[in-house]
Amino acid sequence: MNSISAFSFLLYTLYLLTVASAATFNIRNNCPYVVWAAAVPVGGGKRLNPGETWPINVPRGTSKARIWARTNCQFDATGRGSCQTGDCQGLLECKAYGSPPNTLAEFGVGLGQHADLDLIDISNINGFNVPMEFSSDSPLCTDVMIKCTADIVGQCPKVLKVPGGCNGPCPVFKTDEHCCYSGNCEPTNFSRFFKDRCPDAYSYPKDDKTSLFTCPTGTDYKVIFCP
């Protein structure tokens, strides 16, 4: 094998290893209205009409990742504009987290002691805008399905209610009690409002025991808006 062929073979092998270590996330819009899906740090953003699916590949080692839906957006030909909920600095292709309120699918891929575990959750800490399901889509992990489909917007406490969504108490009050800045906090009446309606989703920052799920690395996933 000559040096050029050997180099090409090495590049191809590295490509295959990269693909093999990535998790596929199929993001589907089952809502009867358009949503603008967002994914950070991998993916960016995409308009999804009802029934459309957007697959993204997430490399092993990705952490602090989020997927969410934006609603009532308007973008120009350059991909700049705004959304009523979940806006990410006015960009169609998000580069930063979205503005509350937004129902979040949060995850890290390959974060165990031996890079052998994925961590996944749904969070309402930043509030709620669109019903969501976040589940495994692989025989490697068949028993993980997180849902938050309650009428949170319709039942939202007045002080948290905004057009198109229901804010979390942390973005509204910005206090240690609700945001856990010091690392120590307990459930509040506002966090219980979310927990009572979506018991498998994060309702406040220390809600790990009932809201954090794991799958073996190599699992693929689906995130469904309006399941």
UniProtKB/TrEMBL annotation:
Instruction: Quote the CDD domains the UniProt record gives.
Output: TLP-P
Entries under InterPro entries matching the protein? Osmotin/thaumatin-like_sf, Thaumatin, Thaumatin_CS
Under SUPFAM superfamilies, the record lists: Osmotin, thaumatin-like protein
Q: Where is the signal peptide?
A: 1-22
Q: Which UniProt keywords apply?
A: Disulfide bond, Signal
Q: Which cysteines bridge via disulfide bonds?
A: C31-C226, C73-C83, C88-C94, C148-C198, C156-C166, C170-C179, C180-C185
Q: Which domain of life is it from?
A: Eukaryota
Q: One short Pfam family name for this protein?
A: Thaumatin
- Check the record and name the PROSITE patterns matching this protein: THAUMATIN_1 (PS00316), THAUMATIN_2 (PS51367)
Q: Which PANTHER family match?
A: OS03G0233200 PROTEIN
Q: What family classification does the UniProt entry report for this protein? A: Belongs to the thaumatin family.
Name of the molecule in the record:
Thaumatin-like protein
